[in-house]
Amino acid sequence: MNSIRSALARAILSPNPRLLWARHYAASAGGTQPESVAAEMVRYALGGDRPRSSPEEAMRILEQGASNLQGGGEGSAEAVGMIMLAMSTLLYRSGRRQDAMEKLKATQQVAPSAAFRVAAWEATMGLSMEAYQDINTSVSPDDLVDLSIKDDNMKWSNQDHLKSRVNAIKGLIALINGETESALFFDGYKDPFAGVGNEHTENAVLSYGEYLHCVGDYPLATQMYERVLETTSMEDMSGNVLAACNMATEEVSLGATCSYGQLLSHSGKFSEAEDYLTRALKKAEEQFGANHPKVGIVLTCVARMYKLKAKSEGSSSIMVQEVSKYLLFLF
Hints:
Blueprint: H1 2-12, H2 20-29, H3 33-45, H4 55-69, H5 76-93, H6 97-109, H7 114-130, H8 160-176, H9 182-185, H10 202-215, H11 218-234, H12 249-266, H13 270-288, H14 293-313, H15 317-327
C-alpha cells in the first residue's frame, strides 16, 4: 500500500508532468488528472522507476489504481484503459500469455476510444503470432468489440495512423504465413515515418521494414529499422501507454535491433551485425532474463551471423570459436 500511495502522490503533485511519455499521451488524449495518475502508475509498475518493483507488487498497484479510478469522471475511462493495457503487459512479461490475452480481450470490450481498441487488438494479434496460432487477416478491431458499445465516436477507419497499425499487423501475419499478397497491406505507405514517435506507429514501421527485408529491399529496410531505433532511443520505454505485451516499445526496440543486426549480416557487414546483435542480446537478457526463449532467438541469429561470416571467409574455425563463446550465455 505504501508503494501505491507513493505512486499516486507523485502523480498528484505533478499535474503538468514534463516527462516525454506524458507529453505523448497528453497530445492524443487530453492529459486529464486521472490519466496523469494512471500514466505515473503504469510507469512505476512497468519499471520506469528504479528499483524495479516485483511483478506481484506491480500488479497490486495496477489493480488498486484501476479500482480507484473507475467511474471518476472525465478521463477515468482512458485511465483505466491505460492500466488494463499495462496489466496485460505485466502478465505477458511474467510468462502468463493466456492471462494477458484475456486481459486484452477485456480491454477491447470496454475500450474508451478507437486508439485503445487498436492497441489491444494489435497486442492480441502479436501474442497469437508468437504462439504460432492461426490468425484470420480479415479480422479488424471492430469485429472484436461488442456492438452495443459502439457509437460514432468509436470509428477508427478514418484515422490514418490507426489504419497503418492495423494494416501493418495484417501484412506481418500474411508475411509469416508465406502469402505474397502481404504487400497489399503496405500499399499506400507513402510516408511511413509520419507518425513515428507521435502516434505510436513504431510497430507499423518495423513491420514494414521486416517486409522489405524479406523481399530483398535492403536499402529501404535499413531506413525503416534505423528510424525505429532512433525513435525508441529517444522515448521513455515505459511510457508508450497505448501499446501492450510484445507490441510495447521495449519489444519494438528489441525487435528492430535484432532485425537490423540480421540485415547487416545478410549484407556482409559482419562487424556492424555483431554490434547490433550483441545489443539485442543484452536487451533481451535485461528485460526477460538469461533463460528466456527470446534470448535463445537472438543467440540463434548470432550463430547464423557467424556461419555467414565463416562462409564468406572460407573458414569454419571462426564460426566454431565465436558461436561457442555466445552459447556460454545459455548456461
